[in-house]
Write a sequence for this structure.
């Protein structure tokens, strides 16, 4: 990351992994363009992030927009294109960290607090936001010549892509599709020297995780078996994103990279 004009585009920037990565990449001298979707209840958190980024990054822009909407995506790319045209630099790091999907069963439930099974619309929305949107953003950057040769693309996946959690079916399917997109994009972007990798973080106490049913049990089990005696933190993942964005990682692509401090192998 040699030039201050290099840019990072972060999807899902206002909390969790996205916010930590935005702060870490800003500290490395990148201009930050962060897309998030927050109501008024999240305003204080977004303002704190903006203040941090403005104190470290050469430029910092936060867009409160739906990253899965075609028109909103075009608006962000229009602004990004203007910034590049006026001040130079292209996107050197793209991080996809969107965590918005339907946490519902695939089949009707019995019991005291049953939920209706996932509708066609819920399944399609979850897949579009958490998987297909990666393709749309990469394509938009390529079409506008905003993605730098040798750039790094990362997508946050989870162990739910290959294992089962209660009411996690729609999200698990989307994470599996996301990993498939990562593999395909890694091959198609190889001629540009662009790497594409998925990051599978360890269990992390984020707002997104707290929406998962039985998340307390998930946290307790992960902590009990973790060799480091603590859970993964967003800053652990952000540090990995910075390290993996270095020039020397150009031959690592199409992978699912665990950033969990050994949690998975200790289970």
């Amino acid at each position: 990351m040699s030039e201050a004009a290099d840019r990072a585009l972060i999807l899902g920037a206002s909390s969790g992994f996205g916010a930590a990565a935005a702060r870490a990449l800003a500290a490395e001298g990148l201009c930050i363009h962060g897309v998030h979707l927050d109501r008024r209840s999240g305003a204080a958190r977004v303002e704190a992030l903006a203040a941090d980024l403005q104190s470290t990054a050469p430029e910092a822009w936060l867009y409160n927009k739906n990253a899965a909407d075609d028109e909103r995506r075009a608006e962000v790319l229009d602004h990004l294109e203007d910034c590049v045209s006026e001040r130079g630099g292209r996107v050197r790091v793209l991080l996809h960290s969107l965590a918005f999907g339907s946490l519902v069963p695939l089949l009707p439930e019995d019991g005291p607090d049953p939920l209706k099974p996932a509708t066609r619309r819920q399944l399609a929305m979850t897949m579009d936001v958490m998987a297909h949107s990666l393709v749309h953003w990469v394509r938009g950057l390529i079409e506008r010549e905003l993605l730098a040769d040798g750039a790094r693309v990362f997508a946050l996946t989870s162990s739910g892509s290959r294992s089962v959690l209660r009411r996690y079916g729609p999200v698990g399917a989307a994470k599996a599709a996301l990993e498939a997109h990562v593999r395909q994009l890694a091959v198609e972007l190889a001629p540009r020297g662009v790497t594409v990798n998925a990051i599978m973080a360890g269990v992390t106490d984020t707002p997104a995780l707290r929406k998962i049913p039985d998340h307390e049990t998930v946290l307790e089990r992960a902590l009990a078996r973790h060799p480091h005696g603590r859970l993964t933190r967003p800053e652990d993942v952000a540090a990995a994103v910075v390290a993996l964005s270095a020039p020397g990682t150009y031959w690592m692509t199409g992978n699912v990279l665990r950033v969990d401090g050994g949690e998975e192998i200790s289970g």
